[in-house]
Amino acid sequence: MTDSSQSFDQVRYNLCEYLEGRVAEVSLDVFKSSVLPTLSPGALNKLDDTVAHLVSNDRWNDFLEDPAHSTDREDVVFANLPKLIDNIAKAVAPVLQVGCEENSVTWKAGVYPSPAKNFRIDGNLHGTYYLANIAPTTTETPPTADDLSLAQSAHNVVWLYELKKAYDAFSVQGNRGNIIRAASHVLNDRRRRFTFALTIENCTARLWFFSRFLVMVSDSFDWIKDRTHFIHFIAALSIASEYQLGFDPSIERVIEDNRIKYNIKYCGKWYRVLEDLSDFKAGWILGPATRVWKVKELKDKSVDSTLIGRIRVMKDVWIDEDALSEKEILDDIISKINVVNPVATVDPALAADHFIEIMADVRLETTNPSGEQEGDCTSDIFRGVLPSRGSRGISVSQLSETAENGMFNASYSQRPYPEASPAHLERKNPQFKGCTARQHRRILYAEYGKPLHEILCDHEKLFRSLGGIGKGKIFVSSTYTRVLSH
């Protein structure tokens, strides 16, 4: 989806064009009941009272006037927002933390540590909340640009926010583009299954959810005066486990020789990722997020653990929730050899030797905070009814010169005419195209083949391999069109 040679605006433009019609707009009640960590009814009734000391004249003490009234930049106007969020989390803790001490994680406020030219555009404020207890450095502060690249620092992100002090079409579309761009960085991490986000334009806020199967945004609300939804969002995330925040508990990051490496728990054993064999389009916000790794079993999961056994290949992928697994497809193919159209020269007993052996193919599961097994799939992650095709959506595509009365400019870097308003954006809203329910699977293959680049000098083997690939491609394409493979 992204190209490192593209500019920030180009990447953001491509992401937004791809997601046009794929972002569902839902009510706040649906958003909170379907994807946010659940709060008990008793706790919900006490939330407003627990933060009463943070309010004056029916407004937050730190925001006694609307951000739009200030002449300062966004980073100055919203300087107190991290402190407010932290105070809310601390105030609701006594009500919420009963029985949650072992599950919840610590997160702290911070801004992206990358250089201004990379992630601070036109004075806009881009922020994040990151995990304080798994920072890749020895300190609890976010890594600096010199420590890790932007993509690596995004590995710590719990949830994101984008802030604008104005509420106009330019600010709304700018926030949408920026939050989509930031979410694509977060979801490009091997450990991420989904992430949450918040956008604010003056007093108007929306809650966001980004995953492999759905991008969802809530109705807008006044986060300064209508505080209940804002408090609920902060409270729910403040007691969440890493799994509920979208992290994959079966993958651990470790530091070895000042480099980030990954250990993967699979079928009761730990494996070390030796090399990324393929991650084509794995960073797409919606899609299978297919990654293929060269791995080797670990004696235990310690950083300096001994590698044992043969090199294996492991695939991590999100397939349709009702699709057959790769192993089921392969077993079905082998079982039908010489059954439909018998070929005398084909020995079914030897057929399996011509396929890659699949040692294991399982849907990932975890134990939820209630102690129950929960599948890593759409139906378990999304507790409510999925938004249907044709339901409400929101426009996230770039501002267009062809919009009504030419009010929008095609570039994010130039502000449209002053009379442009969010109302014009609402008239552009497309219908939601629907989503694909997915399940998260991991497959372990017994063999690790030889890459083509390693046999370039052996022309006979190279051309024989290429010929086999051509035949295999025809076979795979035909089975795919018949919905036999994916």
Automatic annotation (TrEMBL):
Pfam families: Pkinase_fungal. Residues 152-455 form the Fungal-type protein kinase domain. It comes from the Eukaryota. This is Fungal-type protein kinase domain-containing protein. The lineage of its organism: Eukaryota, Fungi, Dikarya, Basidiomycota, Agaricomycotina.
